[in-house]
Amino acid sequence: MIIYLLLSTIILLIALFDSHSIYLEKYKIALTSRIEISLKNIVQFIILILMFLLVMFRDTSIGTDYKNYIRLLIPLRWVDWKELITYSKISGLEIGFVFFSKIVLFFSDKISFVFGFWYCLLFLLLNRFINQFSTRAMSSLYIFLTLSMYNQSFNILRQFIALALFLFAFEFLVKGKVLKYILLVVLAGSIHISVFITFVFIAIWRFSNKMTKLLSLTLVFFSLVLSIVGKPLINMLVSMTTYSNYLHKEVASEVGVGLLINILIFAVLFFFYDNMNTKDTNNKYFLFASAMSLSLNFFISDLAMIGRLMIFFKIFYIISVVRMMESFKINKILFELCIYLLFFIYYGYSVSGTCFETSPYIFMS
User: Fold this and answer.
1) Which tens digit of pLDDT belongs to each residue from 193-245?
2) Number of alpha helices (DSSP H) and beta strands (DSSP E) in the chain
């Protein structure tokens, strides 16, 4: 636990420094006579390497899905290429995950190399997304860590790989290249099928800013009502699926403090939405993502599996919260400090008591 709190503290200090100084961006180091790299990019790269190393060398005694991956990847080394589809069906792993893992195993039979490949892909695409949409990369990394998405990726790897591919696809959606977006999401679906929920963003691409704002508020309202009056129906429907064992298993950090944070973020984004749109119309996606995250959160006490769907919308907090801080004009520094402190407290709460011990927070014990 201590090492992750230390990591979050380091990123926080860099984020605070970078938020109110152009030094990291202005100071450049010449690699060659024509190529220069900013100190900001160097620091960002070092932090990503550190996060990657913590993933690769942390303790594996905690975690449900992660242990299952190890169990299923070991025999994959001896599965014939012609039998990959059959093995995908038997193991319950999507064919894309099986196929690309098999390619890695072709070059090395070490399971750690497979995890290394997938986490490299995750951090590379995450870093690309942050550089594309965030003006404060370190603040975005800090939010990714302190909202527990980083540690959550330790366990539900396939969802996060699918998430990373979705973030890459999102770049094409905002440019109006919908077909490329669809094809990349389908590719991500070959890693984990849950990513198909992100097709809802195509509707937002067609909506205006005002329509998105109205839709987001309506979505939150009806989800709240449905979560209260529709519980018997939801329980009945879920009990007939393969996810029935997740009924009434609460994700503690999302039911309590996490729910309050989702409410707070959505409320602030909603009220500052018009001001934020003076610079970038892409904020309509971020407001809708916040509404989806909050709406799903209302149901999580009855179906913990929803926490795994929330990541496809919660991930946008690493951009929207930064933009929210930038749009706040009164007592800006104090507001930012409050946000950073709130997330740090939430992260400390999360890593000190995770639900059913599925997220591996322990480092090399």
Assistant:
1) 999 999 999 999 888 888 999 999 999 999 888 888 876 666 666 665 555 55
2) 21, 2
